[in-house]
Amino acid sequence: MEKEALKLQLKKQIVEFLNLMAVKPEDIKDDEPLFGEGLGLDSIDSIELIVLLNREYGIDIKDPKEGRKVLVDVNTMVDYIEKHRTK
Amino acid sequence: MGVISAIGNSVAENHVSLTQQKCGIGKLEQFPSKYAATLPFGEVKISNELLKEKLRAYDADVTRTTLLALHACKEAIDDAHLDPEILSLYDTALIGATTVGGMCLTDELYHDANKDEGGSEYLLSYDCASVNIYLQKYFSINGVINTINTACSSSANSIMYGARLIKQGLAKRAIVGGVDSLAKFTINGFNALHILSDEICTPFDQNRKGLNLGEGAAFLVLEKEEDCATKKIYAELTGYCNSNDAFHPSSLSDNGDGPYLAMKGALDIAKLSPSDISFINAHGTGTENNDLTESQAMIRLFDTPPAFASTKSNIGHTLGAAGAIEAVYSILGIANGEVYPNLHFKEPIEGKNLVPVLSYTKTAIQHVMSNSFGFGGNCSSLIFSKS
Amino acid sequence: MFYIHQITCISPQQTFSDIDLNILNDVADNKLKVIEPSYEGIPLNILRRMGKAVRIGVGSALPLIKQKPDGIIIGTANGGMEDCIKFLNQIIDYNEGMLAPGNFVQSTTNAVAAQIGLMSRNTGYNITHVHRALAFENAMLDAAMMLHENPSANYLLGGLDEISAYNYNIDYLSGAYKKEKISNKDLFTIDSPGSIAGEGSAMFLVNKFSKNAIAEIEALQTLHTDDIDVVKNQLQLFIEKNNASGKPDLLLSGENGDNRLTDYYTEIENEVAKNISVARFKQMSGEYPTASAYAVWLACMILKDQNIPAHAVKKIGETKKYERIFIYNNYKGTQHSFILVSK
């Protein structure tokens, strides 16, 4: 899949999985921080996102420190998905 | 008092195990779960069949949660010599607490919830109240009957509610306690939050990896001092407080506001100052967040905290039963002049440098503070004193 | 016991904004579901996580927490049942694999009280009573005790439960609901077992000050029994104990159309309501464990407006002036409550 298409697909999945009611997928910027300022996600969301990566892309992140490196913004997530996806 | 846990089926057995520093955390054997082999649990080593036999509780809809509660409640009632006539009076209250209730039957609930014909024998047993409604019927108790769920602090609140009923003359005696059994539901819930340790838990240790779930029940009989002149008195409940951390649904604030306010409030009710506390039975679950926050709150309130330890290292975290089981342990410490150590501890938390009690000690105990903190920021502290 | 100063209610009827009790909304598939408001006061980033029980609980509490109560006392039998079973479904569907924890956190019954505390930064007393159909009654008793201990305080008191597809199934299988589809307008005329499902959240700001109060909770008693004679006996004692300040002029009856419970309600009516008016409310709320919270809310409205909506009237008594309302509720013939609400 093209990187841009993958980015949009991931944004849609994030919005749906976390039920981000006020957010349109296309409004999420590729380099917008997921946590803190940016999208305002919290620790429970970070676990939910790891579950999303597992269910949608067959990626198994066990180490929370690894998770923190991956779940920075859409760019870092897509880079990781491209390298590690099993489906 | 009555108690059943991973280290014993009675108060006497639990007491011996505590003095022998026994750890009851190990393999899950009573029901199948994917995690039975990979995670340790503080399981009560009696099957449901044996419990039913022992308690003569053969109803088809009775759950393990109810059986554990019944076992502990019966011991407490016998210990306090409450006969059927006293139990049936309108001023005998029964206040229970549980978080999982009948949901220990995770698979049965799944099937019943997702079909519209047939149905199992457990249709009326899934909610939290089912446990105490069963006990009420079994013992024919007629006073105020209640069930409380404030997550992991539930049974500290049931003790508090019972004490307040008596104080205000709404009950003359209150049977108070809590129960939880191991369930796929809670195992998977806590696992999804990444707070279960794959090793035996190490409360207050720098390298702690999380908590171990446990199961059990404990009940206590509360009465006014003037009403039990001729009876055996273990200890006096002198302080209690419930506060909310109001910070996050599943973790505590860095500064430990909820825990601090609960401990401080309990001291105020007991009219004690921090230096009066001989020992703190800490909540100490072994998670990153709880132990750090509880340490911070203890330092805030006590400056140099008194001797403290967590018995979660013996029996795991029994959720809705924890407050009541640990109340029994706190009272045993007072009655016998003992302190039971915090097992598996190696290295203090960086920056906090608090070391729990590490060996079984004989010493006079005047006032014990017992902490219970839960999801939703629900924090409660109780103080038991030598009477 | 204590005084009620502010009330809110999210229910299947027009009870939240633009209140009109004369309209009776219809039931669909034997389920009376709440009309949810737009929840403008709840930030979207928080709202997105909430299941229905938490939404209606927090939504109905929001207007009252502006008064900064000293604590939060909630009664709910099941709390976030929908989230609970969603998580359960994940466990089974993914075979205890990697699960999303959001539902688990929201599924704990104390999530409503916790979320209200969190949103209002309320570090005071915070508790959730879950004793099935006496969960709200125990919350009331707790509020009375808290106010006895802290006479100058204010507390938020509430009762709520939701219908989820799942607990509807479980209760349906146990015979709690009618097999045939009915209209709530016919709830009291069809002679068959079972009721219709309901849900709702009623919240009250309570304290010890009589000035400007909407109503007073004068007395409360709860019972666990299936013996009608015991209920009658206790009722007589309750009346004797509480008739010093006058007899009730309205019985608000928890009749729910289940013909297995008719005897209880008839006996109670004969006992307390020979010459007084009788009104019913479950055609509005449906049956759920904390429906008595809805009854207390409706009693407050009747005391305030001196009017009983036509669909609620069962019998008009000698007086149409309502100053003391006696509520009798019976859940599945096993849990009973008597509540006395006065002006």
Structure characterization notes:
- The complex is a heterotrimer of chains A (87), B (387) and C (343).
- Chain A has helices at 3-17, 43-57, 64-70, 74-84.
- With 87 residues, chain A is mostly helical.
- Chain A has one domain (3-84): ACP-like (Non-ribosomal Peptide Synthetase Peptidyl Carrier Protein, Chain A), CATH 1.10.1200.
- In chain A, helix 1 packs across helix 4.
- The longest helix of chain A has 15 residues, at 3-17.
- The radius of gyration of chain A is 12 Å and the shape is globular.
- The model of chain A has no long low-confidence stretch (mean pLDDT 90).
- Chain B has 387 residues and is of the alpha/beta class.
- Chain B has one domain (2-385): 3-Layer(aba) Sandwich (Peroxisomal Thiolase, Chain A, domain 1).
- Chain B is 33% helix and 16% strand.
- Chain B contains twelve helices and twelve strands.
- In chain B, the strands form three sheets. In chain B, strands 1-5-4-2-3 form a five-stranded mixed sheet, sandwiched between helices.
- In chain B, strand 7, helix 10 and strand 8 (307-309) form a beta-alpha-beta unit.
- In chain B, helix 3 packs across helix 6 and helix 7 (154-167) packs across helix 12.
- The radius of gyration of chain B is 19 Å and the shape is globular.
- Chain C is α/β, with parallel strands linked by helices and 343 residues long.
- Chain C has two domains: 2-207, Peroxisomal Thiolase, Chain A, domain 1; 218-342, Thiolase/Chalcone synthase (Peroxisomal Thiolase, Chain A, domain 1).
- Helices cover 34% and strands 21% of the residues of chain C.
- Chain C contains eleven helices and eleven strands.
- Chain C has an eleven-stranded mixed sheet, with helices on both faces.
- The mean pLDDT of chain C is 95.
- Classes of the chains: A mainly alpha (87), B alpha/beta (387), C alpha/beta (343).
- At the B-C interface, helix 5, helix 6, strand 3, helix 7 and helix 8 of B face helix 3, helix 4, helix 5, strand 3 and helix 6 of C.
